[in-house]
Amino acid sequence: MSKKEVYYKDYLQLDKILNAQDLESDKAGVDAHDEMLFVIIHQAYELWFKQIHYELDSIVDLMSKPTINDNDQTLQVVVHRSRRIIEILKLLVDQINVMETMTSLDFLDFRDLLRPASGFQSIQWKELEAKLGLLFEERHGKEYYVSQLRPEDRDHVKGVERTASLLDLLNQWLERMPYFEDGKLWGDADLTDIDSHPFWSNYRTKYENSLLEIEKGNLKMFDSVLGGKDDDTKRRLSAKACRSALFIYLYRGYPLLHLPYELMVSLLEIDELMASWRMRHVNMVFRIIGGRVGTGNSTGRGYLKAALDKHYVFSELAILNGLMMPRKDLPELPKSLEIALGFMG
Ligand code: HEM
Questions:
Q1: Could you read off the pLDDT of 178-198 as tens digits, one per residue?
Q2: Would residue 289 count as lying in a domain?
């Protein structure tokens, strides 16, 4: 039997998508021209969220492998898909411009008709935050979150929060990096203790010397972030993982560290773009509804600004940038390690 010819609108299910704009103003017999834009823009966002989840799920899947070679195809695919997420997020930030063509009066024509629905109830957004690594305890206004979602949606997001996030997997992957514990590379020294490790004790001294007088307090941060000398139970990247991450940042010129570096930079960029979206959204909200409460009954601008500050996921990667020193001062690596990192010169 011959295969039925594929037809454009069937292939894309356009009958469903293009008939999915059920305007509340139409139902109420109210004239509200801009509700069509409001609905379509939210739908467009949700479709892009779906694509982001599709990429992110595959990344999580790949990163869950017990071993990932630093230079193999798996990591290339992870980086490539992360970059795709980045490009989509850029689009989502820009899309706010279109929403902002709606004025306050245009919004007031239909705003009350959609209460108490709100973007706050976007499950895909909450899921995205959770998959990246935002914990329930770290959410701003978590009680509000519990009360505003339907029980099945709340349970769904809670289920995602319980599974390994990209941040958890990043931690495991960084902890597996072998560079500092290989006795062949570093001789007989005690390699488990940062104070006696030939590389890290040297790096710490050089870092201390590179600090300005007013920055000397950074050494405490160094000991806490890289040495684990603190009782910070909230940290999500272990000291060991942070040492690997900083090493990758510093020595990214070595062939084997290119991809790991690209991955870390991509994660930082995702965090930054999510924050940019939040920033654009909160500014748009201020411009359109001023200081009024949201349709979801939060304080509106105040709630969104606090979430913006609290919902960074990869900030522990960003903090490492404060523990660097100029290239010219970096410790030289043992020849055997240089070879292991793919540098043959
Ligand atoms: C007129 C345009 C918009 C206004 C006035 C607005 C307003 C708000 C307000 C006040 C909140 C806080 C919760 C509440 O009380 O409702 C919120 C949350 C949210 N909105 Fe919008 N919004 C608009 C457009 C959009 C668009 C186009 C999207 C795209 C998906 C969106 C997605 C979200 C998300 C994801 C949240 C939850 C943020 C979080 O919890 O961190 N909003 N919005």
A1: 888 887 788 777 777 788 899
A2: yes
Q: Which residue among 53, 136, 281, 305 is best mutated to probe the pocket of ligand 1, counting the most ligand atoms within 8 A of its Cβ?
A: 281
Q: Is 2 a domain residue?
A: no
Provide the b/e sequence for 201-228 (b: ≥16 CB within 10 Å).
eebbeebeeeeeeeeeebeeebbbbbbb
Residue nearest to ligand 1 atom 29, measured at CA? 42
Look at the chain and report how many structural domains it folds into: 1
With a 6 A CB cut-off, is 42 part of the ligand 1 pocket? yes
SS3 content of the chain, % helix, strand, coil (to 5): 65, 0, 35
User: Could you tell me which residue, 226 or 180, shows the higher pLDDT?
Assistant: 226
Residue 345 counted as domain residue: no
Q: What CATH number did the domain enclosing 133 receive?
A: 1.20.58.480
User: Residue 262 belongs to what domain range?
Assistant: 8-340
Residue 1, domain member (yes or no): no
CA atoms within 13 A on the CB side of 173: 27
Question: From the alpha carbon of 107, which atom of ligand 1 is closest?
Answer: 1
Report the predicted TM-score, pTM, of the whole model to 2 decimal places.
Answer: 0.95
